[in-house]
Amino acid sequence: MREFLFLALLVISGTGGELCVTHAMKKIGEVHDFRPWALLQFILRALRVGWMWLGIAMMTLAFFSLLAMLSFENVSFVVPVTALSYAAGAVGAAVFLRERISAQRWFGVAIVCVGVTIVWLSHR
Known about the structure:
mainly alpha, globular, 6 helices
């Protein structure tokens, strides 16, 4: 049960953080100028977007959830099951960011989910 709770926290907060940061970056726009001063200005603009801070906070929570999980589980279990974040990312991109996801990509997500299920069922 503990594994499931930390995995859910890791996947939800990590994916949520990535979606928030993506939303923030779409508001800010692309980096076109890679000179140091321009990059600094870009970073300062990014830090003024609330979605960026929410994303950073959620990704921090995901990182500490990963550390917690690694403290009581083997890395050979933790790393494969965290691949569920790929499925959550695809769903989140479709629902929250309104991205179109091809059938091929959904098929790939399904394969990842089957792999995670196999790892989970062979865990104990």
